[in-house]
Design brief:
The protein has about 250 residues and is of the alpha+beta class. About 60% of the residues lie in helices and about 10% in strands. It contains ten helices and seven strands.
């Protein structure tokens, strides 16, 4: 069996793909998967499903939702459910089952390691594979409790780190001209993330657009000062100086 939570939740069991239509049941299973092999208390699950104001019927409702999850995960060859009752709550045992989140973190680590050792081709492929697993986390906009909110915050940051690493790897392989449009989009979507501005400046300069590269610096500096009251960091300032002196290590 394989659990996938980096996209709308689904469970793949051989040739069958199982999904959940009821949002509260979906939230319950997602929280248990994120904390797989750990006990999640009923109080935590109340918070994930209902937020700060669980109904009086929360305990009875949770029991029903757990029963529905167990039915979904039931296997014909065993009566043992991967969802166990463990005071003060419940635990999903992963065992030998697969989880796309584990694949993602493994690929992200491989990408980091390849990038550090200048294995740019391998780094590019690792980051691409990691990002391909992410097709929108479950309930990102409606997460009520700390488990799902924390997971969404972590995943958003991890995806951006993979994207930064992918851009660095592609740049090192000489694909700077093809990256300009993507980096314009990334720097616009994430205006406070200096790495994307730095990468865009370098891609533009290496594409013989020195003036546009310096305009990117001015735009980034203005945004950082207006939004945060700070100046660009050393990496962004260094690339500006390198462009002004036409020294980019080409």
């Amino acid at each position: 069996m394989r659990y996938e939570i980096l996209r709308p939740l689904r469970v793949i069991d051989g040739e069958r793909t199982k999904t959940i239509q009821a949002q509260k049941v979906e939230t319950l299973l997602t929280a248990l998967i994120i904390r797989s092999d750990q006990v999640v208390s009923t109080e935590q699950l109340f918070s994930e499903i209902w937020g700060d104001e669980p109904p009086r019927s929360a305990t009875a409702s949770l029991y029903v939702y757990v029963s529905q999850v167990r039915k979904l995960l039931r296997r014909p060859d065993t009566e043992v459910s991967p969802v166990l009752t463990r005071p003060p709550g419940y635990m999903l045992t992963l065992g030998s089952d697969g989880l796309d989140l584990h694949d993602f973190t493994r690929l992200m680590k491989k990408g980091r390691d390849h990038l550090r050792s200048s294995g740019h081709e391998a780094a590019m492929h690792s980051f691409e594979e990691a990002l391909a697993l992410c097709q929108g986390p479950l309930l990102a906009d409606t997460a009520r409790g700390s488990i799902l909110r924390g997971f969404w915050t972590w995943l958003n940051e991890a995806r951006l780190e993979c994207m930064e690493g992918l851009m660095d790897a592609r740049m090192a392989l000489g694909h700077h001209r093809e990256l300009v449009s993507d980096l314009y989009l990334l720097s616009t979507e994430h205006p406070l993330r200096e790495a994307f501005h730095r990468q865009l400046m370098l891609a533009l300069h290496r594409s013989e657009s020195r003036g546009d590269a310096l305009l990117v610096y001015q735009r980034a500096r203005r945004t950082l000062r207006e939004e945060l009251g700070i100046e660009p960091g050393p990496a962004l300032q260094d690339i500006q100086r390198a462009i002004l002196t036409a020294d980019t290590g080409r």
